Amino acid sequence: MSFFETIRLKLGSLNALPILAALGLVSGLLAGSVVILFRLFIESGIVLWHSGDGATDFENTSWWFRLCLPLFGGFLVGLVLHKVGKDKRQVGVGHVLERMAYHQGYLSWRNAIVQFLVGGLTLATGQSVGREGPSIHLGSTAGSWLGQQMKLPNNSIRILVGCGTAAAISASFNTPLAGVIFAMEVVMMEYAVASFIPLILASVSAAILSRIVFGNDVAFIVPSLDLASLWEIPYFILLGLLIGGIASLFIVCTRKIATRAADWPTWLKCGVAGSCVGVIAIAVPQVMGIGYDTVNSALHSNLPLQILALAFVGKLLATIVCSGLSLPGGVIGPSMFIGAMLGGLIGNIGSMLFPAYASDYAFYSMLGMASMMSAVLQAPLAALMTLLELTNNPNILLPGMLVLVISNLVVSELFKQPSIFQSNMRIKGLDIKVNPLSQFLRSVGVAGLMERKVAVHDKQISFQEAEELLESTPRWILIKEEDVPKSLMAANDLARYFLKQKELHQEKLEQAKAKDEPIDEDETQIIDLLSIPGDRQDISSIYLQGNLEEALDTMDRESVDAVYIFRTTAPMVDKIYGVLTREIIESHYSYKR
Q: What is the per-residue pLDDT for 400?
């Protein structure tokens, strides 16, 4: 057995943590490198477009430039997407979630190339999108590609996709812990030790690479923020309610626009989105690009009330249009921008009404940024970790937890809205169903639970062959017809029949010898495995990379209670590794539960 084949079989179980840890480290380095290349690409692309002081400083450009750049860029991105075809234009976090939910995390490198190019072009032309969505797609694809190239089991590929996601967030924000939590909360939708350790290694390795290239600073330059008074708690509650309401409005409006424009050609949707951004940017240039410079200004209390209000309204409208019309970018960055502006707006008003009890409005901007991200993505723990790592200030956790919980409850319980990603998937007729059984079944590969003591034979078998077969003490016999496995029989049934026939044959030999009659040595020497008494069952097949969920789905679809596990080792040559029955799966789940 080869080295890689041993790894594949080992990874099918839940006890492959050292191997997964090593793979997580490799996938983190790979995904981190891809995301760093993407950041260098988009930052150099933006610099080529204009000559502002900052890489995203569109405020110093002329009004006609702010109108024409996103308009032209929107139509250009739309034409490129239209040319590449429907399958290859599926990009972003929503695409990653779809592949995780319906395709075991298999992501195509072709879609990633499209994401790299059009995602960079979208950001370079000042559209109201973020770089995090494309980064997550690229990082996830890097992890998935590694698993596919090594032909790893599907349960391991899912973990490597999570590793790529964690690495992408870590390399984008320089927040390794938030990357791990985001990957588990949003993409993998589970918390397990078997995936936690590989994700940590992937996130840390990507953060190290990012710091080598971009330095140690996090994405936002956050000053020292302190809570001025506990009398602000009612105001924090108000902020959470407002953030939850705005997040719900954002999700609903995005879904309505996406539904109405579902039949529009891609070039038209992207062109309209770019045109809307250009028109809004004439009055509010802050809406263009990722807007981190504007957020940093809010976090240092450098924006007046009017700019906060205009930037909030403008960015909200521009992002709704861009997200609803499917421009290839992310909503994480824009949601943080919107939250920072709204938080700063509320904090600014509070400081004017209650100057003795109000914290600096930058404090509210930070809370608004994290809570808006949490409410839109329905990822409170990831947002909380982001808040902690960005501020490096544990004192912000108390108000942060309060605001995040309230905003999430408003979205999910009061307005009954899903996350923005699930909302967009439902427009396509897709949904993500999360339950403990599915999560458990997806985490275990068929190789980790299959019965390997299996003998494979044609339905016709001689006495001598049967005796040799039983000497190897198999548990099951896989019966082939026309070189295709068709039935599964317990080896004990053949053993009982063989011993009985052997006794009968011996009696006949003794009787013939006693009567001095000719002895027919060939009599009863051929056994038909499909005719002898026994409990046989029909069987289907599943690839060695499959997991328990796929095995059960195959059994239900084929109306069988067993599958055999195989892998194609050469053209027209399949190697059978073992069998798996419904009873084994159900017993294992009951034991683990």
A: 93
Query: Residue 57 sits in a domain of what CATH number?
Result: 1.10.3080.10
Quickly tell me which residue has 């990822």 as its tokens: 379
Residue 521 has a CB neighbour count (10 Å cut-off) of 8
- Report the pLDDT averaged over residues 333-362: 88
CATH number at residue 578: 3.10.580.10
Q: How far apart are CA 370 and CA 383, in angstroms?
A: 5
Instruction: Looking at the structure, tell me whether residues 172 and 214 fall in a common domain.
Output: yes
Please check whether residues 366 and 408 belong to one and the same domain: yes
Does the residue 519 lie in any domain? Answer: no
Say whether both 218 and 324 belong to one domain: yes
Q: From start to end of 313-430, where are the E strands?
A: none
Same domain? For 85 and 107 the reply is yes
Residues 316, 250 contacting (CB under 8 angstroms): yes
Q: Which residue has the tokens 């001598």?
A: 464
CA dihedral 162, 165, 166, 172 (to 10 degrees): 180
386, 408, 434 — which closes off a domain? 434
How far apart, in whole angstroms, are the C-alpha atoms of residue 339 and residue 387?
Answer: 13
- My answer on whether 574 and 538 are in the same domain is yes
Same domain, 83 and 132: yes
SS3 letters across 205-250 = HHHHHHHHHHCCCCCCCCCCCCCCCHHHHHHHHHHHHHHHHHHHHH
Domain C-terminal end among 412, 434, 456 = 434
* pTM for the structure as a whole: 0.90
What is the domain count for the chain? 2
The reply to whether 301 and 170 lie within a common domain is: yes
Query: Tokens 């985001």, residue?
Result: 182
CA–CA separation, 541 and 228 (whole Å): 65
**Domain assignment present for 73:** yes
Number of Cβ atoms within 10 Å of the Cβ of 266: 19
**Residue 421 and residue 492 in one domain:** no
- 43, 54, 66, 47: which is closest to 284 by C-alpha? 66
Cβ burial, residue 105 (10 Å; 0-12/13-18/19+): buried
pLDDT of residue 9: 78
Q: No. of H helices and E strands in the chain?
A: 23, 9
In sequence order, the β-bridge partners of residue 526 are 462
Of 180-184, 435-439, 441-445, 582-586, give the range with the top mean pLDDT.
180-184
**pLDDT of 185-214, one tens digit each?**
999 988 877 789 999 999 999 999 999 998
User: In 3-state terms, what secondary structure has residue 101?
Assistant: helix
Query: 327 vs 58, which has greater pLDDT?
Result: 327
Of the candidates 388, 363, 369, the one whose C-alpha atom is nearest the C-alpha of residue 232 is 363
In a domain, 501, yes or no: no
User: Measured between alpha carbons, how far is 593 from 590 in angstroms, rounded to an integer?
Assistant: 5
CA 251, 257, 262, 268: dihedral to nearest 10 degrees?
-130
Of the two residues 191 and 299, the one the predictor is more confident about is: 299
Residue 405: per-residue pLDDT: 96
Nearest 5°: CA angle at 48, between 37 and 78? 75
Token pair listed for 377: 């993505």
Residue 443 has pLDDT above 90, yes or no: no
- In this structure, the dihedral spanned by the alpha carbons of residues 251, 253, 258 and 259, taken in order and rounded to 10 degrees, is 110
Is 393 part of any domain? yes
Structural domain harbouring 403: 3-434
488-536 residue pLDDT tens:
999 999 999 888 887 877 777 777 677 766 655 554 578 888 888 888 9
